[in-house]
Amino acid sequence: MSNLIVHGGTPLRGRITPSANKNAVLPVLCATLLTYEPLRLLGVPDITDVRKILDIFRLLGSEVQMDYATGTLELHHRETVFDAARHRLPEEMRSSIMLVPPLLARFGVARLEDNVKGCTLGVREIDPHIDVFRQFGGLVERSEGSLLVRCRGPLTPTDHWLDYASVTTTENFVLCAASASGVSTLTNAASEPHVQEFCRFMQMIGVKIEGMGTSRVTVHGGGTLGGGEYRFDEDFHEITTFLALGAITGGDVVVRNSAPENFPLIDRTFAKFGVHITHENGWSRADCPGALKVQTPFTSNVLTKVEAAPWPYFPVDLLPIFVALGVQAQGNAMFWNKVYDGAMGWTTELSKFGAHVYQSDPHRIVSFGGSPLTPAVVESPYIIRVAIALFMVAASVNGRSEIRNATPIRRAHPGFVENLRSLGAQVEWTSEE
Ligand SMILES: CC(=O)N[C@H]1[C@@H](OP(=O)(O)OP(=O)(O)OC[C@H]2O[C@@H](n3ccc(=O)[nH]c3=O)[C@H](O)[C@@H]2O)O[C@H](CO)[C@@H](O)[C@@H]1O
Ligand SMILES: C=C(OP(=O)(O)O)C(=O)O
């Protein structure tokens, strides 16, 4: 694990182009294994999760040419071999679970390690995925430290209704449905921008999908899939992160943003902390006239709140970024994580900066912002966006801070430190790992 050393207090200024969204890139990479045709992917980020998936492709015998300097990936899964006893799917990342449907389609078997939990946000269920595999005719059995999923023939189309709008379960449903001959429908489907982007890629390789971006998705599966060229969109998480960094340091950061239509709720959430976002000619800017300040609600006896839930609610992965704004803003705010039951414990680390945050239950915290903060040495849990939130607070405080175990940032944000330096930040990693 590597730490971030930050000399904070410098307002960040400049223009920046965000990278692709890890949570779109990874399901797309898994989906590539469904086709035998060559593909070219553009804008592939140099992040550790991508490297892990490409490593498994190489083990399977796929042709993989990745040029990280240009973000161009040439991929051809022409002749592949999978040995469930020998080949291990990448651990410590949630997306491995989306390799199961293409492995089933190709080899009739997949083995999933127990440790595919990704960020330590509390329970990351696999039962909804198993329900999906079984609905399509998959056979699931427990083996030591892993699950074995098999199918005795091609998957069969199905209709399914999810308990909740799970991102990766929706993607797994679409992946299974693409290889099942016939029509499959998912109700209570997730609709996040990355789920929609993944569906657009599936359409490009020849899968007919109706209802993408809504809660009911219909997939016409079983056709022969093609190849082609696909360029990834910009990551709304990274766009929001850079805008928030500009605001928390009192600077002026302008970020490339080709999809401002995804931002109305995110913009209103910034406004709750006194940050005004504008979108013009494909660029977004955070303007913060004066100090950060929590908006006072008109309703009496309530707190200004940020309520995170499946899209189109405020995105849960952005919640820590706004907690960082909350502790710097004058006033009190409530942050409500409706998705995860164990994603708020990290906020005790904020007290090391002198911040006052109270956890009222596993899902909710209240920030009492505006107290003067001092530099600190803090520990990040294995949560990408929390390492960033701790960095944000450090960057806004005069003096030397250290974010220990900040490596998870490398799972999602390529060249994070280099990008920040280009905006004027004084920050470095303690090691290259
Ligand atoms: C690789 C990838 O794409 N990871 C993302 C994906 O993970 P992932 O697909 O694992 O997240 P899910 O949408 O399945 O939700 C995660 C967990 O939250 C709980 N839950 C979720 C929703 C709900 O309405 N009720 C409920 O109880 C469940 O315990 C579930 O296991 O979506 C999450 C939620 O946006 C994001 O944090 C992750 O970054
Ligand atoms: C939680 C995240 O990723 P994962 O689901 O892979 O842990 C994330 O991208 O913030």
- Please state the CA-atom Rg, rounded to the nearest Å: 22 Å
| Major sheet details | 4 strands, mixed
Text of the CATH class of the largest domain:
Alpha Beta
Q: What is the rounded distance between the termini?
A: 6 Å
What would CATH call the architecture of the largest domain? Answer: Alpha-beta prism
Helical residues, percent: 25-40%
CATH superfamily of the largest domain: Enolpyruvate transferase domain
Catalytic activity: phosphoenolpyruvate + UDP-N-acetyl-alpha-D-glucosamine = UDP-N-acetyl-3-O-(1-carboxyvinyl)-alpha-D-glucosamine + phosphate
GO molecular function, one term: UDP-N-acetylglucosamine 1-carboxyvinyltransferase activity
InterPro entries: Enolpyruvate_Tfrase_dom, Enolpyruvate_Tfrase_sf, MurA_subfamily, RNA3'P_cycl/enolpyr_Trfase_a/b
Enzyme class: transferase
Could you characterize what this model shows?
There is one protein chain. The protein has 433 residues and is α+β, with helices and mostly antiparallel strands. The protein folds into 2 domains: 4-19 and 234-429, Enolpyruvate transferase domain (UDP-n-acetylglucosamine1-carboxyvinyl-transferase, Chain, Alpha-beta prism), CATH 3.65.10.10; 22-231, UDP-n-acetylglucosamine1-carboxyvinyl-transferase, Chain (Alpha-beta prism). Helices cover 27% and strands 26% of the residues. It contains 11 helices and 23 strands. It has helices at 22-32, 48-60, 100-107, 127-135, 167-179, 193-204, 236-248, 264-271, 319-328, 384-395, 416-422; strands spanning 4-8, 13-16, 39-42, 63-67, 72-76, 109-113, 139-143, 146-150, 159-161, 182-187, 208-210, 216-221, 228-231, 252-256, 276-280, 283-287, 304-308, 331-337, 356-361, 364-369, 377-379, 399-404, 426-429. The protein has a 4-stranded mixed beta sheet. Strand 7 and strand 8 form a beta hairpin. Helix 1 runs parallel beside helix 2. The model has no long low-confidence stretch (mean pLDDT 96). The protein binds uridine-diphosphate-N-acetylglucosamine (UD1) and phosphoenolpyruvate (PEP). Phosphoenolpyruvate binds at residues 22-23, 93-95, 118-119, 317, 384-385, 412.
